[in-house]
Specification:
Blueprint (H helix, E strand, L loop, with lengths): L1 E2 L5 E4 L3 H12 L4 E4 L12 E3 L1 H9 L3 H6 L3 E3 L1 E6 L4 E6 L10 E4 L1 H13 L4 E4 L3 E8 L2 E9 L3 E6 L2 E4 L6 H6 L3 E5 L2 E9 L9 E4 L4 E6 L4 E9 L3 H7 L1 H9 L3 H12 L8 E3 L2 E5 L3 E2 L2 E3 L2 H4 L8 H22 L4 H29 L4 H16 L1 H11 L9 H7 L6
Parallel strand pairs: 1-12, 2-3, 2-13, 3-9, 6-16, 13-22
Antiparallel strand pairs: 4-8, 5-8, 6-7, 10-11, 11-12, 14-20, 15-18, 15-19, 16-17, 17-18, 21-22
Bound molecules: flavin-adenine dinucleotide.
The site of flavin-adenine dinucleotide has 36 residues, from helix 1, strand 4, strand 10, strand 15 and helix 9.
Length: 418
């Protein structure tokens, strides 16, 4: 067992939240160590939407401009259509106040690379790859450090006044704290793939909704294109048995116009190894903080990707938490009650997003005809009614969480006079 020198903050997990927190703390001169069990930044074959709240955080850590020069796709509108191709609703980001009145679609590897490079610029940040968190170190009921397994199965101890767990849905830090938590696995996950940009593809980003079908399609750069296809996780083996060509046919047949555009780039995806199935979860914990320790991102509150807010929320957590940590250092107090300010600021917004994402699973993924009828009415109302449109826009963009009241739901269904 090797014991290491003291840091100010130890961060478990080099996910979006972990990087942003380390960079923000380093900007204030704190010594930070990040540990990740992988050998390099994680990359998934998917496009992720950076919403306005995420753009704001990336601006805070001075990488937004650089990111926009990379292979990313900027868009101002999202189009929802039914399977036949009929327009249902367009969400217009230009309705938000500038400068963050747009969104970006990025490949996780592009943004993770930039975050890593930015962190490497700070001599006060130490990054440990292939370093797996094993357990928390305790003294008089408070966390004082971590035990980490590094390459060669060597156990090392690191000490700091604060440990932050940004280690994802199945967080080991959360388990170590013994915080009661409920992990809800959604029935449906997504088959995802990245392919060449279809020639003549016009719209920026569009979502297709049908009977038990939900498909997102979006450019992730000038050259690459992302597709995300909703699929029950208990049918993945059966669908794979039918063969990859049958699955590609399903995509092409969703809508004749788009199907034609997609068939060429899809033909280059020749085996199941070109597709990745990812499950979706919601995590709800009794608490996000303890004496000497805090949780952030998916470890504290994973949510269904329907609101495209998991990464953005993790980064926003980091931004708020960095301010609270600064106060903790000023006061020399890292107790649960000192850290609770972070949870009090973030929990209401995050819970509103989790609720919205959860409600959307039964509305968007439904096979039930009356619900599909209601969904079409709701989409068309949002398209026409500025009040409803801006309310969903503000919530999804992470700018201002505005929960839907019964009145809004009736208004969306045209059951309430406007
Ligand atoms: C299909 C799909 C589409 C999505 N689209 C979007 C989107 O458009 N926009 C958006 O904002 N979000 C999206 N998300 C959600 C987003 O990807 C996650 O919410 C986000 O990555 C969470 O970040 P995190 O830092 O909390 O955790 P993670 O990204 O999960 O990172 C956790 C890190 O901790 C490390 N780790 C875990 N255990 C240990 C351990 N014991 N020791 C050391 N290291 C450990 C892991 O290796 C990993 O690097 C999507 C998710 C899915 C599934």
């Amino acid at each position: 067992m090797v014991s290491q020198s003291k840091r100010d903050v130890l961060v478990i997990g080099a996910g979006p939240g972990g990087w942003v927190l380390a960079i923000l703390l380093a900007k204030k001169g704190y010594k930070v160590a990040i540990f990740d069990r992988q050998g390099s930044p994680s990359s998934h074959p998917r496009g992720e939407i950076i919403q306005p709240n995420g753009l704001k955080v990336l601006d805070e850590i001075d990488i937004l401009q650089r990111l926009q020069q990379e292979l990313v796709y900027r868009w101002d509108k999202v189009h929802f259509r039914n399977m036949g191709g009929d327009p249902l609703c367009t969400i217009r980001y230009q309705n938000l106040p500038p400068p963050f009145n747009f969104a970006l679609v990025v490949l996780p590897e592009v943004i993770q690379k930039l975050l890593k490079e930015r962190a490497e610029n700070f001599s006060v940040i130490d990054i440990y790859w292939r370093a797996t968190f094993k357990s928390l170190l305790w003294e008089n009921g408070r966390v004082i450090g971590v035990q980490v397994e590094t390459t060669g199965k060597m156990l090392q101890e690191f000490h700091a006044p604060l440990v932050v767990g940004g280690d994802g849905v199945y967080s080991s830090v959360r388990k170590g704290l013994g915080i009661p938590c409920h992990i809800h696995p959604y029935e449906n996950g997504y088959m995802t793939a990245i392919m060449d940009m279809p020639r003549d593809f016009k719209e920026e980003l569009h979502f297709y909704v049908g009977k038990g079908v939900y498909v997102a399609m979006m450019p992730v750069s000038q050259y690459r294109f992302y597709i995300m296809y909703l699929m029950p996780k208990n049918r993945v083996t059966e669908i794979k048995k039918e063969g990859v060509d049958r699955f590609k046919e399903r995509i092409v047949s969703l809508n004749p116009d788009v199907g034609d555009l997609l068939s060429r780039p899809l033909s280059a995806l020749s085996s199941w190894s070109d597709f990745v199935f990812v499950p979706a979860f919601r995590v709800r914990c009794k608490s996000w903080v303890a004496d000497g320790c805090a949780l952030m991102g998916d470890a504290a509150h994973a949510m269904n990707p329907h609101v495209a807010q998991g990464r953005n929320s993790a980064m926003q957590d980091a931004s708020v938490l960095s301010g609270v940590i600064e106060d903790c250092f000023r006061r020399g107090d890292f107790s649960r009650s000192a850290l609770l300010d972070y949870e009090k600021i973030r929990r209401p917004t995050v819970e509103a997003l989790q609720r919205t994402a959860h409600e959307l699973t039964w509305l968007w993924e439904s096979r039930f005809t009356p619900l599909i009828w209601a969904r079409e009415r709701i989409f068309r109302s949002i398209d026409k009614d500025l009040y409803l449109h801006d309310k969903i826009l503000h919530t999804a963009s992470g700018i201002k969480s505005q929960p839907y009241h019964l009145y809004d739901k009736w208004r969306a269904l045209h059951l309430w006079p406007v």
